Amino acid sequence: MAYRAWIPDTTEVSDQPLSAPGTLGASVLVLDDEPGMRNFLQRGLAHHFPLVETAPDTAHADALLTRCHFDLLIADIRLPDRSGVEWVQELRDAGSILDVIFITAHADLQTAIAALRAGATDFILKPFRIEQLLTAVERVTERRMLSRENYLLHRETDTRFTLDGMVGNCAPMKEVCQIINRLAPMRSTVLIQGETGTGKELAARAMHERSGRPGSFVAINCGAVSAELLESELFGHVKGAFTGAYQAREGLFSFAHGGSLFLDEIGEMPPGMQAKLLRVLEEKTIRPVGGNQETPVDVRIIAATNRDLAEEVEAGRFRADLFYRLNVVGVRLPTLRERTEDIQSLAHFFLDRLSTELGVTKQVCDPWDLEQLCSYHWPGNVRELRNVIERCLLLGLRPGQCIAPQGYAGKVKHRDADSDLSLEAVEKRHILTVLDSEDGNKSAAARILRLSRKTLERKLKLWRIDD
Q1: Which of 211, 370, 438, 448 is 20 to 30 Å from 223 by CA-CA measure?
Q2: Is 205 helix (H, G, I), strand (E, B) or coil?
Q3: Phi, then psi, of 330 in degrees rounded to 5
């Protein structure tokens, strides 16, 4: 069957840009034995994709796949050398994850089922117009983006903070916000340093949200993933790359394409992975575990650490070349000890936010509470303050009381450590600690706990604790 009679000329080819965000930098391989069809598709798709290659048979297609990375394959089912469905199935078995749209003039139910089993994402009958194909491409790319977003949604821990959520009016925090605003639209790699709990991921998210980059923000804690799995987590793997790799999977670099990848605790990254990350930063390509093909990626790297990487370099625990590559621009987040004037606003912020989330009565942070909070050392910084506020709301205590038991240390009798961290067990231990510190005086303990004596006695009776 000849197709030249119905192939439109160039005046009929749409030149409107494809709207789907997943087409960012995408490349397409067209496989069809009919020269007119290949010419038609190349001219029509060239308006929408930076790279469109064509092949007349699977042998030429294999050669192109060896040399280049493609995001989408548009293939005829009936080819002179073999079946397009069988060839795609072999690609799938070898670990390929590229999207496939089949085109054919000879369709039946059995063929359609075979195409779907081979991993086809769409199926188009000839003859068709270029607009029909572009609609199918948009469906494919939107489906890929939704799949990625769903995967990332399961990985997210807290996406509710923005730069506006970085509470604080002290000079160090104002300087941090100014730096974030200045660096956000840049493509340069950023290294954020600061103690645990100072808000490094919050700063990275704010930088991404203000960058204007169309891709996603993807975060990974390099110290929370084993050295054996970190490479697969970042770069993906092909089917059969290692024990348990029953199917190919994209890595976080692919999910962050067009966006930002936040590498938290970069100082924990194993030396072997440091070398591979350095190569990715220099070449801007990744290679999945077990694969032999480079895939280009457009990812802005934001790294963070609570270690002094300069000291780690001197000690030989971190690569100097990677440190210099990451530390193009540095941001240091102040500790909570350096911004005690922000403790009051932070406490009120968490009281408002967490009381709503937990559905409990909001507690008041009065001058006594503020004095207790400001006099504490806060080794866990803002994260620890947030946890203290959450604890006080759950237990119905004042904010100052949740760190006050350290002040009772001289009066409290020794008690064996209890590993039970349930809410009931924590409440019981706290009430008994306060009661013990007041030498069993229930009225005094009830006043400190802001409970009625009757409520305290009821709890003690429930716990079968006699006078």
Answers
A1: 211
A2: helix
A3: -110, 145
Domain 10-147 superfamily per CATH: Response regulator (3.40.50.2300)
Kindly give the residue spans of alpha helices, DSSP state H, lying in 22-129.
35-45, 58-67, 84-93, 109-117
- CATH 3.40.50.2300 in the chain: give the residue spans: 10-147
Instruction: Give the C-alpha separation, 317 to 37, whole Å.
Output: 57
Cα 403 to Cα 370: distance, rounded to the nearest angstrom = 11
Q: The domain 163-334 is classified under which CATH number: 2.170.16.10, 3.40.50.720, 3.50.30.50, 3.40.50.300?
A: 3.40.50.300
Tokens of 6: 């119905």
pTM of the model: 0.60
pLDDT tens-digit map of 379-421:
889 998 998 898 888 888 888 888 744 443 333 333 344 445 5
CATH 3.40.50.300 spans which residues of the chain? Answer: 163-334
**What pLDDT, on the 0 to 100 scale, is given for residue 217?**
93
From CA 258, how far away is CA 218, in angstroms rounded?
11
- The reported pLDDT for the residue numbered 452 is 80
Distances, alpha carbon 348 to alpha carbons 176, 218, 355, in Å: 21, 30, 10
